[in-house]
């Protein structure tokens, strides 16, 4: 592609370089190594390839760019400023790393400012980019290339690539032939500990070739060379890995190429020396007008594409236009809940008691039928989670598929789901055994931090799984998920609550949800489905009969049925007891104090959950009893295990009797 | 190597095959695919290469074998039974998957029975094996090849290799040239979802060559071919990856080679057909005497090596012998605590207030000086965690190094530490930022389940890290770690508690510990170090002055100092308040009820911890106050953040005043 102005590209790159230096120097910290070393890579991408419009940062058909090496955040802020994003004025760059600044230590998801993903924890960003490429391919199939035809790029460091999640994604992206995905490797041969050779001697280009990527190797300080490689990337059906050999901290005399360049403190003397060495006689936070103008021109480079796209959209038939608008605004189709509600009603009528995973799978199938943008998947647990069912597979050859086979790559799944949600237009969900959720946990945190509506489903939620043993029996997972802020954790009791919770989770658009199901049969505890009772997080599922309640049993999941059996046993002894189902603590916590008090009651409380106690004291108080797990599970038949660990209706009833005796 | 008997190897493999079939058929579940498909691989390994002595399963210089594809557990049980392990009689095989059986659904760590690691969560076992190979190389350097010269093997499936942790370990093991590590890939082209091609098209041999492994490709049903490859593996300085092409469920007519072989239910008709097809006319759980005898002979194959080793040990000079005995019994050297205690005393005298990570690093250095078998390391955070200091690096060329550069591979580190601990003779520790602990979390769970004494250290434990922002600020981690059973979570307040907690953690030999430190300065709260007060998990660090306590403030980490400042402010107002430091909840929970009551007191309570509330209700009760985080952090200066999130002495004092007002 021809140069877009007569400003030399190296000066455009230097504009990034000095803004990054000035910002790091001003605050006295930050990571200059990446912005300085990758300035030419970024210049080639942003001025010659990336399709975007700073005046409309949310343009649906824009290319997506993720700075996976998030510690180099000033690279991104400088790029966005220079390209003309209104949300990133020079004043913002001057406040780098100050509380309240848009220029945070690591990039925080804010697409209106051009920040497509929160990055920093290494490997996540490149997985996000792969998720975005999946979303693009999926939507291009649904909407046509006239409306969806864009690429996903990531700048990645050695650290990103060492992470297992990146290796999982590399393998899967090659398999899926995500031809619109390009990773630009900032191959600076340096890590925090020093020369890369301290911990790595792998032939990364060969590793990517083995995974069916196009691999290109260039001088990362040669804008024209990176430009040429990016052009080749655009014309290959495989994802492209562009190895860009660079010098870390390039431009800092005496520091560039050394370990100190990674995150060493910049002094004024050093930045002055850099200015002299690179003939950049401009004061801090000042870009000479010719360079600034060249960047502004580059920032408007995609305007013809943008306007042509808008014209195509304007010319769309009404229905297609509405569909597109719905997707880009993230609105769900009208009546999407109908199927779920019908399922709940029918389940209530029939008394549908069946395996939790089966219920979950049926619901996903119903939801997917109503929501064409829903893209489900699992890491090699199609049968055991029943989530594929009649959905066809999303593959290299069939982009219309609605189910992604991730292979045994939980972490890739989680982080790619985040990328799909950040891309927009897709309702991403993924399911695995609850016990494997630890493998994808870093993704939950970032989804919660970004406020992305990702649906993380889990089956096999307790010792109820039986003979596979303690490695496969979650005990600490409910607590550890409940600890994550801005994450809804649902554990429905039966098929009715299952449909209710899925509806709540899908409707929740400002953060992720975890939906947790049993392997074993989930007996019915609700025979009414007129109202979504899960909406309040917890509710009295069975009032005390024969008098005022003398105790309250709190439970979730299949243990609600067990609580109800205990209640019956106690009722026959003349002890009226209420049972509260608590499918979602986080929602219950948001209810009024009055409602919570009414549900929890004044009587002594006993909680039952086949998991650890941590967190339950919030609801049962210091004198309450807890029936659950105090250690890991065991291998054995399901019934044997419930008995062995004392999680039975009898044990709950005994705990209630003790409570009543103590207080009575 | 010559055949050890005139029994054909395929019949020896069939003994495994039918025992696995019979056990799965009897219980009506299990995963026959791996034991049937890998029977020849395992036969080649166990009868011709593996160095072990079933009569002395804990022989220190035995080869280690890990069945990473743990779902194929019957392969291991059959091998151990046939090889003559007393802990694995035929009766045990008949109880496969019954509660209390030694033949659990997945192998559970039990070295006395020959089970070297708990496996099942995929990828973990092969990482464990790599950790074992590191331990071997490390100890061989310390003790000499006369005493330590053994190999580590793992049988791995496609699922294992798809996991990111395996990819991290592959890269690192090649880099470290762990020549005594061999992975036998059961390349059966089939996963739970069906043909491997559904989710994978990577050229795995090329991938391993890129990572500097020796790669060998053989017919996995040809015992002689596998044998030959294993011989080549023993004569290469690189780790070896033996790709064994197999047929899943081999031996089940109509099922072998299909998806159903993975974990499909076996019927008697099917096992009868298999018996007929393979000319195995023996009843279930019966091995013909010639085959059983051949296996017994093979199980005694290493006796000459064993006896020669014992003779060498018997001839050792006293001091070397004592050193060896100490290591193999897992005893720490006499007086190992002295340096830590001296550090604590000196810190108390000097009022040593310094960065938490610096304290942690200094303590590790002191501990490492006293414990020669301690092997530290970090994933590319040498400088930021200060854990290397004067330790030299363990590398391909220097096995005497005491510090391992893991690269940015947290998960590999965690799982390899488990392998080192399971190997024995090594005190493994690894450190990273607390926020990256999620990446290695699956390893914590398995360390806790196995009861391995692994030291997981963390720095940068809260918003106190400042400007790196919310991605780097843990808020939910303390709760999520406290949720894991059999794991001690230490968060010391100052340098004295730091030394105390490290001493407790190192002394704790029946499970792992997490040790959590601040990035920011940790002010001194203890000026006395005569007694290890952390031994009780929590204690009154400052009694109320000027009267009976009207409130109790509970805190951990740097927030103890903040609580003490609040206490002073309140004292000046005439409110006597006690402060309790709680460096380890789990230990405090184990104290007598009387002690706990005495520490917690009867007065209203306020807790302060720069983390989420989950779990604190246990200690503060339903009326207690909590000062901490309710969401994610932010990027900004440290002081700004404490103010912004209201975690200050003033806020704690205000909470106490409110409590006292409510109750007073």
UniProtKB/TrEMBL annotation, chains A, B:
Gene Ontology biological-process annotations: pentose-phosphate shunt
Cofactors (names): Mg(2+); thiamine diphosphate
Catalytic activity: D-sedoheptulose 7-phosphate + D-glyceraldehyde 3-phosphate = aldehydo-D-ribose 5-phosphate + D-xylulose 5-phosphate
Domain Transketolase-like pyrimidine-binding: 354-524
InterPro entries, sorted: THDP-binding, Transketo_C/PFOR_II, Transketolase-like_C_2, Transketolase-like_Pyr-bd, Transketolase_fam, Transketolase_N
Record keywords, A-Z: Magnesium, Metal-binding, Thiamine pyrophosphate, Transferase
GO molecular function, one term: transketolase activity
Any one GO CC term of the record: cytosol
Coiled-coil portions: none
Similarity comment: family membership: Belongs to the transketolase family.
Cited PANTHER family: TRANSKETOLASE (PTHR43522), TRANSKETOLASE 1-RELATED (PTHR43522:SF2)
Protein name: Transketolase
Gene source species: Dankookia rubra
Lineage: Bacteria, Pseudomonadati, Pseudomonadota, Alphaproteobacteria, Acetobacterales
């Amino acid at each position: 592609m021809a140069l877009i102005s007569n400003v030399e590209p190296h000066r455009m790159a230097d504009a990034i370089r000095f803004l990054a230096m000035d910002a790091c120097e001003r605050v006295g910290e930050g990571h200059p190594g990446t912005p300085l070393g990758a300035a030419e890579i970024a210049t080639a991408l942003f001025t010659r390839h990336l399709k975007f419009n700073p005046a409309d940062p949310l343009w649906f058909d824009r290319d997506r760019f993720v700075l996976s090496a998030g510690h180099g955040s000033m690279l991104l802020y400088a790029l966005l400023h220079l390209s003309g994003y209104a949300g990133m004025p020079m004043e913002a760059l001057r406040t780098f790393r100050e509380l309240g600044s848009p220029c945070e230590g690591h990039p925080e998801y804010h697409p209106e400012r051009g920040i497509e993903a929160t990055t920093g924890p290494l490997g996540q960003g490149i997985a996000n980019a792969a998720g975005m490429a999946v979303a693009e391919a999926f939507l291009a199939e649904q909407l046509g290339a006239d409306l969806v035809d864009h690429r996903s790029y990531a700048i990645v460091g050695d650290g990103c690539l060492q992470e297992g999640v990146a290796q999982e994604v590399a393998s899967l992206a090659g398999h899926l032939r995500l031809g619109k995905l390009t990773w630009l490797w900032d191959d600076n041969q340096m890590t925090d500990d020093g020369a890369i050779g301290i911990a790595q001697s792998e032939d990364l280009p060969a590793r990517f070739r083995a995974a069916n990527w196009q691999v290109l190797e260039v001088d990362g300080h040669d804008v024209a060379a990176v430009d040429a490689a990016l052009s080749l990337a655009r014309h290959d059906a495989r994802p492209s890995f562009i190895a860009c050999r660079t010098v870390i901290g390039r431009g800092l005399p005496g520091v560039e190429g050394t370990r100190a360049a990674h995150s060493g403190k910049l002094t004024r003397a050093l930045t002055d020396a850099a200015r002299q060495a690179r003939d950049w006689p401009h004061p801090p936070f000042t870009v000479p007008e010719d360079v600034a103008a060249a960047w502004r021109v580059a920032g408007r480079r995609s305007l013809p594409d943008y306007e042509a796209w808008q014209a195509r959209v304007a010319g769309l038939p009404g229905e297609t236009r509405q569909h597109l608008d719905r997707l880009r605004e993230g609105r769900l189709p009208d009546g999407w809940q109908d199927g779920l509600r019908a399922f709940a009603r029918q389940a209530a009528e029939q008394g549908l008691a069946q395996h939790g995973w089966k219920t979950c799978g049926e619901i996903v199938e119903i939801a997917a039928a109503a929501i064409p943008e829903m893209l489900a998947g699992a890491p090699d647990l199609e049968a055991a989670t029943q989530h594929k069912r009649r959905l066809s597979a999303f593959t290299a050859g069939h982009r219309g598929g609605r189910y992604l086979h991730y292979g045994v790559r939980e972490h890739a799944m989680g982080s790619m789901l985040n990328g799909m949600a950040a891309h927009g237009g897709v309702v991403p969900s993924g399911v695995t055994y609850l016990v494997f959720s630890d493998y994808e946990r870093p993704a939950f945190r970032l989804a919660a931090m970004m406020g992305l509506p990702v649906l993380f489903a889990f089956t096999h939620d307790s010792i109820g799984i039986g003979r596979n043993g303690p490695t496969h029996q979650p005990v600490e997972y409910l607590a550890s998920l409940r600890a994550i802020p801005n994450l809804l954790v649902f554990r429905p009791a039966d098929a009715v609550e299952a449909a209710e919770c899925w509806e709540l989770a899908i409707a929740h658009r400002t953060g992720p949800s975890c939906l947790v199901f049993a392997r074993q049969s989930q007996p019915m505890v609700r025979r009414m489905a007129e109202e979504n009772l899960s909406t309040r997080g917890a509710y009295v599922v069975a009032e005390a009969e024969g008098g005022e309640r003398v105790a309250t049993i709190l439970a979730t999941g299949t243990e609600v049925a067990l609580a109800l059996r205990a209640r019956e046993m106690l009722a026959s002894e003349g002890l009226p007891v209420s049972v509260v189902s608590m499918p979602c603590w986080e929602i219950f916590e948001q209810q009024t104090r009055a409602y919570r008090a009414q549900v929890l009651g004044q009587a002594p409380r006993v909680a039952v959950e086949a998991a650890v106690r941590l967190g339950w004291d919030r609801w049962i108080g210091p004198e309450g009893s807890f029936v659950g797990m105090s250690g890991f599970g065991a291998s054995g038949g399901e019934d044997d295990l419930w008995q062995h660990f004392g999680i039975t209706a009898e044990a709950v009833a005994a705990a209630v009797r003790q409570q009543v005796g103590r207080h009575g």
